[in-house]
């Protein structure tokens, strides 16, 4: 009986066939409690390579916001975050369904609340306090921004704005992506549960694949230059990036360990994971994702998001299926994995307010270094004082 890292750093038991009780072997032969997801429980542990990938992604976003000329396409890291989130959430939901025959949605939302909301509220409180007690221009109307961020509706506000974004959501405008994720979390779990209860697992896979295509069609319907903010910030228009990760989770839960299709998928995902990461790095380094760039913007805002989702999903599958591969071993190195597991969320929350604070104070020389250091300090405080204690209590 092997032991692997479980969700949020706990340990879960990964059963091998020779150690399974007779009842579990029987259920496995029937296809995951009769639902057709025979590998769901075995694939519910933590993936070290994904934690390291989170570290790279949050570092990319930070550099992009501080020095956009260095990484003009750095916002692509948010797309990677979306795909990782869709994968992780879906694999946990399917595993729970296979184990128990259902999904405890109130418990799921409680865990999500404990993981995301208290740390966000701490950032909102600090920003609001700076707005009330200082004359720093970056924190004007911070109370409004804090309220919108706490309600996870910054993306909705930004989607309705034309031209340049207003200062209404500053200094928390980066929380638009949290709004997209939280709105997805509200909708996808009950939809997935309904599908698993009502239709065969194979059809669940097909439905998930079909849902990945719908946002592309919707973006093509919506597209015009004035709709760029609407498309970029809308949960409905960005859902394919989360659903791409969900599709990977469904596929891997469907395939038995001895399925030859899994062997082929493992081979190709392992071969393509490195090039996929290289392509994402190339996009971040050279491709101006946001802004008006004529035909390029139209292509990116219609089919481009799905293309990045496919590349990100390939990378996720490679890290999951080839943990012994060179790329997985590098991304699983203890410092990278620890930061991704414990600090990446806090760093994402704090880096933008820190950047605006430094800009308001007139810091120019060494701003990137100062942002990295101060953001890391705040993320460590958030983890030690807010996140870890609440997660321990939740468990």
Quick description:
This protein has 395 residues and is mostly helical. 71% of the residues lie in helices and 2% in strands.
**What is the alpha-carbon Rg in Å?**
21 Å
Poorly predicted spans: 1-34
What's the domain count?
1
**So what's the overall shape?**
globular
The ordered string of helix (H) and strand (E) elements is: EEHHHHHHHHHHHHHHHH
The order of strands across the largest sheet is 1-2
Total count of strands: 2
Walk me through what this model shows.
The chain has 395 residues and is mostly helical. The protein has one domain. It is 71% helix and 2% strand. It is built from 16 helices and two strands. A two-stranded antiparallel sheet has the order 1-2. The protein starts with a strand and ends with a helix.
List keywords for this structure.
395 residues; mainly alpha; two-stranded antiparallel ribbon; 2 strands; disordered N terminus
């Amino acid at each position: 009986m092997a032991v692997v890292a479980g969700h949020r750093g706990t340990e879960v038991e990964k059963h091998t066939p020779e150690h399974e009780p007779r009842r579990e072997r029987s259920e496995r032969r029937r296809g995951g409690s009769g639902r057709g997801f025979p590998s769901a429980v075995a694939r519910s542990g933590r993936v070290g390579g994904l934690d390291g990938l989170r570290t790279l992604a949050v570092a990319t976003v930070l550099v992009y916001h501080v020095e956009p000329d260095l990484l003009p396409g750095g916002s692509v890291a948010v797309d990677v975050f979306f795909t990782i989130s869709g994968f992780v959430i879906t694999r946990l939901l399917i595993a729970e369904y296979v184990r128990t025959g259902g999904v405890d949605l109130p418990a799921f939302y409680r865990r999500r609340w404990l993981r995301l909301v208290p740390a966000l509220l701490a950032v909102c409180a600090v920003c609001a306090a700076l707005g009330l007690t200082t004359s720093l221009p970056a924190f004007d109307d911070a109370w409004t921004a804090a309220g919108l961020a706490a309600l996870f509706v910054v993306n909705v506000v930004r989607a309705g704005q034309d031209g340049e974004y207003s200062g209404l959501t500053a200094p928390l405008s980066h929380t638009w992506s949290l709004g997209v994720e939280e709105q997805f979390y509200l909708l996808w779990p009950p939809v997935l549960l309904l599908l698993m209860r009502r239709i065969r697992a194979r059809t669940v896979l097909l439905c998930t694949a079909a849902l990945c295509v719908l946002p592309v069609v919707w973006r093509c319907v919506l597209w015009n230059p004035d709709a760029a903010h609407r498309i970029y910030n809308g949960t409905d228009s960005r859902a394919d990036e989360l659903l791409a990760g969900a599709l990977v989770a469904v596929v891997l839960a469907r395939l038995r360990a001895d399925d030859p299709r899994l062997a082929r998928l493992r081979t190709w995902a392992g071969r393509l994971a490195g090039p996929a990461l290289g392509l994402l790095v190339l996009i971040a380094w050279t491709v101006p994702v946001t802004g008006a760039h004529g035909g390029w913007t139209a292509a990116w805002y219609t089919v481009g998001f799905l293309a990045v989702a496919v590349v990100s999903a390939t990378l996720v599958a490679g890290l999951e299926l080839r943990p012994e591969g060179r790329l997985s071993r590098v991304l699983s190195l203890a410092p990278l994995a620890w930061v991704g597991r414990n600090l990446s969320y806090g760093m994402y929350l704090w880096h933008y307010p820190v950047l605006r604070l430094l800009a308001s104070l007139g810091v120019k020389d060494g701003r990137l270094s100062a942002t990295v250091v101060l953001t890391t300090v705040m993320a460590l405080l958030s983890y030690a004082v807010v996140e870890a204690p609440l997660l321990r209590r939740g468990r």
